[in-house]
């Protein structure tokens, strides 16, 4: 089917980010597992259709592109800005494509993004969710480790992250609050639950004391994220949670759309620490998905 029927020449406005992580990444994974060149050629085909999105003044890509015509733009609801979490997380697939094809153009395009962001990197290490593709500067917008938000840059960003850590009462759940200007909001998305895994992986590059600090924080945040799941009747997390004094956490947006961040973080923590508790937590979440979201043709989200 991939060889004979998969056709990307469609007059369709596609999300550059979603197409990169799902289609380019999926095809590259299929190639790595099978070594069948049809998957690599299809990955190259769709990547070539996405590449014009990076043809901006700074190299910060537009987030939407027409697959047939190559016209790129940003969504109207973003006010003409590019989304940080899109532009800053497409490097993995495109660098992998360059490595497998031997063609450096894919890697060169996506690495320009990091160079551009580094030129105007803020002192607190916290970039806002919207970035101007013409200037590579952040607009006045929310700073979050949740929806739409991503060695010197890392360390600076970690200082910024630590400034956003708060703990609830009475149970002292650690969470990452959101920042808008000088205001902080006691809210954390399930999407931000990638952070425990990120911190755990990053801790291995520090000396013993710093490594212990970041790993400990990773474990605290993982407990919070797992509690997102355990706090509901279905044992599936809502989309985000608010933290109010004396009430620990309350669900904000209550739907569940099969987010993988918490389970992935638990996997990394299990592998790095050997603590089977994280394996058990991951299994519990999997069983909740099986019970509540499994249908004959796959899995569905819950309202």
Q: Any overview of this molecule?
A:
This protein is of the alpha+beta class. The protein has 2 domains: 1-132, Glycosyltransferase (Alpha/alpha barrel), CATH 1.50.10; 142-303, Glycosyltransferase (Alpha/alpha barrel). Helix content is 45%, strand content 13%. It is built from 10 helices and 14 strands. The strands form 6 sheets. A 3-stranded antiparallel beta sheet has the order 1-2-3. A 3-stranded antiparallel beta sheet has the order 10-11-12, with no helix packed on it. Helix 7 (195-203) packs antiparallel against helix 8 (208-230) and helix 7 (195-203) runs parallel beside helix 9 (261-273). The longest helix has 23 residues, at 208-230. The radius of gyration is 20 Å and the shape is globular. The active site is at residues 18, 150, 239, 261. Belongs to the glycosyl hydrolase 47 family. It is an enzyme of class 3 (hydrolase).
Q: What order do the helices and strands come in, and which of them pair?
A:
Blueprint: E1 13-15, H1 16-34, H2 37-50, E2 64-66, E3 72-73, E4 82-83, H3 84-87, H4 91-101, H5 105-119, E5 130-131, H6 152-162, E6 165-167, E7 174-176, E8 178-180, E9 183-185, E10 187-189, H7 195-203, H8 208-230, E11 240-244, E12 248-251, H9 261-273, H10 276-292, E13 294-295, E14 298-299
Antiparallel strand pairs: 1-2, 2-3, 4-5, 6-7, 8-9, 10-11, 11-12, 13-14
Helix pairs in contact: 1-2, 1-4, 2-4, 4-5, 7-8, 7-9, 8-9, 9-10
Question: What is the compact description of this entry?
Answer:
With 303 residues, the chain is of the alpha+beta class. 45% of the residues lie in helices and 13% in strands. It has helices at 16-34, 37-50, 84-87, 91-101, 105-119, 152-162, 195-203, 208-230, 261-273, 276-292; strands spanning 13-15, 64-66, 72-73, 82-83, 130-131, 165-167, 174-176, 178-180, 183-185, 187-189, 240-244, 248-251, 294-295, 298-299.
């Amino acid at each position: 089917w991939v060889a004979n029927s998969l056709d990307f020449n469609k007059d369709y406005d596609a999300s550059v980010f979603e197409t990169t992580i799902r289609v380019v990444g999926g095809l590259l994974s299929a190639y790595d597992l099978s070594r069948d060149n049809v998957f690599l050629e299809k990955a190259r085909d769709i990547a070539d259709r996405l590449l014009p999105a990076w043809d901006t003044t700074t190299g910060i890509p537009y987030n939407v592109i027409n697959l047939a015509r190559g016209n790129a733009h940003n969504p109207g609801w973003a006010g003409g800005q590019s989304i940080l979490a899109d532009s800053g997380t497409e490097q993995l697939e495109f660098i992998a494509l360059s490595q497998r094809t031997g063609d450096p153009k894919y890697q060169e395009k996506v690495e320009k993004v990091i160079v551009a962001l580094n030129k105007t990197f803020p002192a607190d290490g916290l970039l806002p969710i919207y970035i101007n593709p013409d200037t590579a500067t952040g607009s006045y917008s929310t700073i979050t480790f949740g929806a739409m938000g991503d060695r010197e840059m890392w360390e600076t960003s970690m200082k910024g992250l630590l400034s956003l850590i708060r703990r609830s009462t009475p149970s002292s759940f650690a969470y990452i609050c959101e920042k808008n200007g000088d205001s902080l909001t006691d809210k954390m998305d399930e999407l931000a639950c990638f952070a425990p895994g990120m911190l755990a992986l990053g801790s291995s590059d520090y000396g013993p004391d710093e490594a212990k600090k970041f790993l400990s924080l990773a474990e605290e945040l993982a407990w919070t994220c797992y509690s997102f799941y355990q706090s509901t009747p279905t044992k599936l997390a809502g989309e985000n949670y608010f933290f109010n004094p004396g009430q620990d956490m309350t669900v904000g947006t209550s739907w569940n759309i099969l987010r993988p961040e918490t389970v992935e973080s638990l996997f990394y923590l299990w592998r790095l620490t050997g603590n089977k508790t994280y394996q058990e937590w991951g299994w519990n979440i999997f069983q909740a998905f099986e019970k509540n979201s499994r249908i004959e043709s796959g899995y569905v989200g819950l309202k």
